[in-house]
Amino acid sequence: MNLETFKRDIKNRYHSLTTAEIDTKVSEMIDTLASEWATSPHALSLQELRIFTGAMIEEEGHALYGELEDLIAQKERIERQITRKSEELQHLKYNLYNALEKQLSDNDETLEKLHQVKLQSIDLLEILEEITESAIITTLEKGSDAEDTLKEIIKEITFTALNANVLNAVRIRRILASILQNALNIAEASPNQAETILRGTLHGINNALLRSIEKFHQYLLYVPEEVKALYRDEYKTIEVELDNVDTLYTQIIHGLHANNDPVLVAQLESINHELSSGSDELKHLSKETVELLRTRLAKIKKGVTERGNKLLKSKSAQEAKAMGTRAWSVAKSTMQGAIKGAKEAMEKDKK
Fold first, then answer.
1. Do 297 and 123 meet the contact criterion of CB atoms below 8 Å apart?
2. Comparing C-alpha atoms, which of 97, 100, 120 is closest to residue 323?
3. 24-28 contacts: CB < 8 A, separation 24 or more?
4. Long-range contacts of 301-306 (CB under 8 A, 24+ apart)
5. Are 10 and 56 in contact (CB under 8 A)?
6. How many CA atoms lie within 13 A of 266 on its CB side?
7. Cβ partners under 8 Å of residue 323, min gap 6
8. CA–CA separation, 137 and 125 (whole Å)
9. Which residues have C-beta within 8 Å of that of residue 335, sequence separation ≥ 6?
10. Rounded distance, CA 275 to CA 176, Å?
11. What b-and-e string marks burial along 216-232, b requiring 16 or more CB atoms within 10 Å of the CB?
């Protein structure tokens, strides 16, 4: 049986049927099998049966297929519009905050509050790739003390991103994976400086993670119990993450294997092994924080009392909830200073 001819014949005959009842149409098509092809549905092979049913579905659903394609096209168009509008909104936010910073730059206390508001309004995850790429490239262009400079800048970027909200397990993995992926991308494009890039980046995010866990540890000591109750589920997740912090990098790096140069990933694994075997500080602090977290969670009753709701709105609770966001000023000035210094060095080199 010529399958192409078979399919074309079934489609033509189905299209020519005048009845609207599907049962009647199917019955007539089975009769066609007997009269025109001297066979029955029972005698068809799997492929022939697939073609027979598929041809009828294509004809019966022709109008619906067209409508579906139109809807898919509309959906894709709307998604593009949403993306553009989201980008426009982010651009508007940055312009507004930049204008406010210029107007309020003469008052450090007000500027610090504005930075906190900015962090709550703009998620660094949205621009993390661009910030990381720019920081690494600028550091390499500077040409001197690249590894140490990169270590400090990546530490500030990572710490600021991690602490824009209360420490979160999913956020940790996403941030570290994003920064490491960008480092691998640039290392692949700059093989002569790959060791410097990967070593500086990994040391930087390790120091930032250590610093973030220290902040979280302090947060657990002083934040009101009622506020911690609101984050009970998140804390249970972060407890598991911190309890296995020694395998965190290994798991993240393993996830980078698929889309990266195996030589570079192996190099990253080697640096990570060297880093983890050289110091137990991160693991030790994580275990201490887990124990503190378990103790604190054991005291929290399920549900949130009305007193807790009122406390959440208090100034002290808001300060505790936002702990870590003040690092924005430090991170911003550090990055801007490094970038400015890199540009100045580049200008001198050109002269």
1. no
2. 120
3. 25/56, 25/60, 26/56
4. 301/229, 302/232, 303/229, 304/226, 304/229, 304/230, 305/226
5. yes
6. 3
7. 163, 166, 215, 218, 219, 223
8. 19
9. 131, 135, 153, 156, 157
10. 15
11. bbebbeebbebbbbbbe
Q: Tokens for 176?
A: 């570290």
Token pair 């990572």 is found at 158
Per-block average pLDDT, block size 10, for the chain (351 residues)? 89 88 91 90 91 91 85 82 75 82 84 68 66 81 78 84 69 86 90 90 89 81 60 68 74 85 90 76 79 68 39 38 35 48 50 53
Q: In the structure encoding, which two tokens stand for residue 50, read together?
A: 């697939």
Q: For residue 262, give Cα distances in angstroms to 206, 266, 270, 303, 330.
A: 22, 6, 12, 49, 36
